[in-house]
Amino acid sequence: MSLTNFALKEEYKRLENLGDKLSEIESLIDWKPFRSIIAEMYNNKTELGGRPNLDEIVMLKMLVLQQWHGLSDPELERQATDRISFRKFLGHVKSEI
Asked: Which of 4, 8, 33, 63 has its CA 20 to 30 A from that of 82?
């Protein structure tokens, strides 16, 4: 385990002790069925290529966070980078944490 992963694990333990509502919600919602619905909305697979889409479930979760916390697009991006609870909810923190 890297020093970074160790530090994140310790920080997340502190958050869990205080209560991580997003972790509780994560265990209640099966996000997989949404993937096929959302995937139909994106059609950038052309001959021209281009940047691939972000994962559909991550995008949905970001919209959920944005709505629940009343965040603008730029603030959502900042919070998703800064807050360990957001990062874990979005799957950007390794699952062993």
From this structure: 33
Rounded Cα gap, residues 28 and 47, in angstroms: 40
Residue 53 CB burial class (10 angstroms; 0-12, 13-18, ≥19) = middle
CA–CA separation, 28 vs 52, rounded Å?
A: 29
Domain boundaries, the chain: 3-90
Q: Return the number of other C-beta atoms located less than 10 Å from residue 42's C-beta.
A: 12
SS3 of residue 87 by DSSP: helix
> What does the alpha-carbon distance between residue 59 and residue 90 come to, in Å, rounded to a whole number?
9
Query: What's the pLDDT at 18?
Result: 86
